[in-house]
């Protein structure tokens, strides 16, 4: 199934510059695997749970729709709450579509500190 990129709610505040460069290097030569999406109680839109970088590069390359697959992982209550918190953080930062991450690319070290560590702290 394909969905319009502008209708997909990110669940990340940042992207890793390194990952963006890597995905950009192979994007045109490989078929894109579907990104994972899911509905959450605090959001009416489909939320990206995996594949933010691929979705972002697709938007840079001019895609308007993207292949998606329903994320049917059996998440724990703690992980569901983390995703809902991430959605709230995105709303607070006015991130409502993947293109909003254009100015939010960080070095791998900063990505670790400002995103990964923040999420791990929320889980504990």
Describe the model:
It is a single chain. By secondary structure, this protein is α/β, with parallel strands linked by helices. 42% of the residues lie in helices and 23% in strands. The protein has helices at residues 17-27, 52-60, 77-92, 108-123, and strands spanning 2-4, 8-9, 15-16, 35-40, 43-50, 65-70, 105-106. The strands form two sheets. The protein has a five-stranded mixed sheet. It has a two-stranded parallel ribbon with strand order 3-7.
> From N to C, what is the helix and strand string?
EEEHEEHEHEH
Q: Which structural class is indicated by helix and strand composition?
A: alpha/beta
**How many β-strand runs?**
7
| CA gyration radius, whole angstroms | 14 Å
Which features characterize this protein?
124 residues, alpha/beta, 7 strands, 42% helix
């Amino acid at each position: 199934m394909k969905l319009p990129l502008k209708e997909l709610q990110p669940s990340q505040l940042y992207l890793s510059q390194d990952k963006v460069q890597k995905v950009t290097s192979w994007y045109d030569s490989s078929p894109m695997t579907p990104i994972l999406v899911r509905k959450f109680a605090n959001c009416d839109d489909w939320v990206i749970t995996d594949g933010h970088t691929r979705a972002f590069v697709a938007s840079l390359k001019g895609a308007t729709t993207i292949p998606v697959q329903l994320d049917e992982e059996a998440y724990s209550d703690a992980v569901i709450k983390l995703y809902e918190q991430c959605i709230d953080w995105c709303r607070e930062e006015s991130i409502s579509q993947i293109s909003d991450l254009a100015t939010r690319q960080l070095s791998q070290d900063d990505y670790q500190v400002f995103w990964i560590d923040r999420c791990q702290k929320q889980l504990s």
